[in-house]
Design a protein that fits this description.
Blueprint: E1 2-5, H1 10-22, E2 28-32, H2 39-43, E3 47-50, H3 56-62, E4 68-71, H4 79-95, E5 100-106, H5 118-130, E6 134-139, E7 141-142, H6 143-157, E8 159-162, E9 169-172, H7 174-186, E10 194-196, E11 200-202, H8 204-215, E12 220-223, H9 230-240, H10 250-255, H11 262-272
Parallel strand pairs: 1-2, 1-4, 2-3, 4-5, 5-6, 6-10, 7-9, 8-12
Antiparallel strand pairs: 9-11
Helix pairs in contact: 1-7, 3-4, 4-5, 6-11, 8-11
The structure holds NADP nicotinamide-adenine-dinucleotide phosphate.
NADP nicotinamide-adenine-dinucleotide phosphate binds near residues 11, 72, 73, 74 and 142.
Amino acid sequence: MIVVSAASGGLGRLVVDHLLARRPASHIAVAVRTPERVADLAARGVQVRRGDYDEPDTLRTAFEGADRLLLISSPELDPGRRIRQHQAALDAARAADVGAVAYTSFLDADTRSDGVTAAHHATEHALKASGLPHTVLRHPFYSEGFLRPALQHALHAAELRDATEGRGLNTASRADLAEAAARVLSEDDHVGRAYDFTGTLWTYPELAQALTRVSGRPVAHCVRHVPAPGVQGWLEGQIRAGALERQTDDLARVLHRPPAALQETLTQLLAEIPVT
Ligand SMILES: NC(=O)c1ccc[n+]([C@@H]2O[C@H](COP(=O)([O-])OP(=O)(O)OC[C@H]3O[C@@H](n4cnc5c(N)ncnc54)[C@H](OP(=O)(O)O)[C@@H]3O)[C@@H](O)[C@H]2O)c1
């Protein structure tokens, strides 16, 4: 039995789709906070169990009988609470005698314990300390998180503005990361490994060109001299410092193919987004 936690989210749903292509539905279960949100999965024969990271008692039953568990990290923003949620899930996995755990961590969380990696760093330590056989899947930023808003704005305004000074950022599509997770859960040789997944390295001028090609509408690239507010400003600072340019071939090795190119992901997103 393979159990996927937080499976009602964007990543989890894609993982379950890939698992259903590889295994009978009766060998797949999801542990979710809100079972009503995955009625469609129940209709496809997937076992639906209630598992809330804030209610440790629900997790033990939710993980029962799992040969493999995919622990999808919580979206909780407070690092302390997020660490407690992940620790509760690991305690439950031990109590339920789960065969092996795959955990969706973040790139560089093995060496960095600040900012976005804080909770992942602590969870990787907790995973090691648990004694559970495991695989660490370190994710980069999801392409969709950058491309979807940029696409909507750029096609509306016919321009793309940024303050990243031409530096690159490496992102991967959730679809590729989901397929990689499904492979890790259903193939034999991944336990005991840690993967540093990266996808495609791109720059904002390249994104403007790719948008023009894919949409058939001209999108000009412009330099923005005023820093963006909030999280976007912080991210642009990271990009300018070159912190997001890391490239590895771990994702390609697990997928047995190159990760999706920028243009491919844009084409998929354009098909989903109504453009006026
Ligand atoms: N690498 C990146 O760029 C990036 C970006 C965003 C997020 N992430 C991380 O990757 C994870 C998966 O991403 P995603 O796109 O699938 O996120 P998502 O679509 O926002 O889904 C989040 C999932 O977490 C579940 N959840 C929230 N609180 C929970 C709790 N207390 N107990 C159990 N489940 C809970 C949600 O369940 P409900 O349906 O009940 O709300 C939902 O299934 C996120 O949770 C976050 O840790 C990474």
